[in-house]
Amino acid sequence: MKVCILTEGGRDIGFGHITRCLSLCQAFEANKISARFIINGDEAVKDLLKGRDVEIFDWLKDSERLDDLLEETDIAVVDSYLAGLALYKRIQERAKMAVYIDDNKRIDYPKGVVLNGTVNADKKNFFKEEGITHLLGSRYTPLRRDFWEAPDKEIREIVKSAVITFGGDDSRNITPKVLSLLTKNYPELTKRVIVGKGFKSLDEINEAKDENTRLIYHPEANQMKKVLLESDIAISAGGQTLYEAARIGLPAIAIAVAENQLDNVRGWLEAGFIEYAGWWEEKGLEENLLKAIERLQKKDVRLKMSSVGRKFVDGKGSLRVVEALLNTGHPGGLRLRN
Fold this sequence. Notes:
Blueprint: E1 3-9, H1 16-30, E2 35-41, E3 53-56, H2 63-70, E4 73-79, H3 85-94, E5 95-101, E6 112-116, E7 132-136, E8 161-165, H4 175-185, E9 190-195, H5 202-208, E10 213-217, H6 221-230, E11 233-237, H7 240-248, E12 252-256, H8 262-271, E13 274-279, H9 285-295, H10 299-312, H11 317-327
Helix pairs in contact: 1-11, 4-5, 7-10
């Protein structure tokens, strides 16, 4: 079986798409199926995809090369905020099954499978369209293999540590600001700071840190899981990391740094898993963050949030997606596994 995963990522645009596509790739591999990555990005993505088949070029523009790579493709998975409808149709016409990862009903997709793993997406009004199958909600959230299983999270009486994580590039430069706020107001707190490959603010981070700060450089999934398990709270952007924190049962405070994170944040706020400090550039963000940290000092609050997170995300989303693709097919009648 031939599977192609088309996405984008790199130092300038972040690695969130790469991470969740890797999650699906690992689920295909668990079914003894390898996948080829076709990535609009830079060489930095190769470290995340070690040992896998990776083609790096601007597939949004080089249609001839894309057509060649898609020849005789059984499943094409597309995860993009940049591709237009015409390109989606082109991919759909060349693959036996097209799968579109979507966070906010970005466009009206052609025939295929729409995957939206956003929390509470299954409660939203997705119109049933001929030829389209929807896989919706956190039941289908793709998580990396290391998060498929997780031990029970210990919720301590006192908050002694926090993890600060704003993606692979921290494009809004939030990390040093949050770290500075914590060193000033919570000097005794152990602060674990995730530093991604695309960070450009290392000098500021080093200037803001104190003796209780631990810098963790571009951790792989197993190390990230360990950090989340060892921490008492997370201060995070509103993207993929919130789902990993939910899987672990780590109470989180979210700061939205992109428009496409707002549905995530709203869903998690409604579910009761996060405190929301606000939009990254709004006035009062620091005050909101300090108030949120104060609320999370109460163990019973953190216990409830932890329980909600684990209830919504059980880690099996990637496997469910691939199982659905292989066994169910889409309304066109395709069945890829007997």
